[in-house]
Amino acid sequence: MIVLISRWKLKNGCPADLVTTLESLADKVKAAEPDTLLYSVNLQARSPLNQPSQLPAPIPGSQQTEVDFFEIYKDAQAFAHHINGPVFTQFREQNIQHFYEDPEKPGWPNTETVFLDKQSMFVRSVLADC
């Protein structure tokens, strides 16, 4: 199993068109990549600990600084299929202008990716409906 968190740094916040694209990205991955076991696309949120009795106000797109991906793949082959597949490639090519580019790999985002060695985990079935 391959588990990772990847942070893509935004150049100038997260404009509405990119938000719309991000909202549908997980569904596209789910439909095209059966060996991608979990794919979560996230923008930053305020801590709920400051106002525990209510949901915190969202952070405006203009103030967003990164998009965070939490991903789990069946194996290394599934991860390679994702990186080289049409959903990721199309997303990267059509949206690279919103992200800082890797100076050594033009056309690719400059990311902070951490691969994790899962020690334990659970997933409640309620998440399947999210």
Walk me through the structure:
- This protein has 130 residues and is α+β, with helices and mostly antiparallel strands.
- Helix content is 28%, strand content 28%.
- The protein has 3 helices and 6 strands, in the order E-H-E-E-H-H-E-E-E.
- A 4-stranded antiparallel sheet has the order 2-3-1-6. It has a two-stranded antiparallel ribbon with strand order 4-5.
- Helix 1 packs antiparallel against helix 3 (86-95).
- The two termini are 22 Å apart.
- The model has no long low-confidence stretch (mean pLDDT 93).
Mean pLDDT: 93
H/E element string? EHEEHHEEE
The helicity comes to 25-40%
Major beta sheet, strand line-up = 2-3-1-6
Instruction: Please state roughly what percent of the residues sit in beta strands, choosing from under 5%, 5-15%, 15-25%, 25-35%, 35-45% or over 45%.
Output: 25-35%
Strand count, sense and barrel status of the largest sheet are:
4 strands, antiparallel
By CATH, the architecture is named 2-Layer Sandwich
**Count of discrete alpha- or pi-helical segments spanning 4 or more residues:** 3
Span between termini: 22 Å
Low-pLDDT runs: none
Just give the CATH class: Alpha Beta
Radius of gyration: 16 Å
Per the principal axes of the C-alpha atoms, what is the gross shape? globular
How many individual domains?
A: 1
| Helix/strand/pairing category | alpha+beta
Q: Tell how many strands the DSSP assignment holds.
A: 6
Give short descriptive properties of this protein.
alpha+beta, 130 residues, Alpha-Beta Plaits, globular, 6 strands, 3 helices
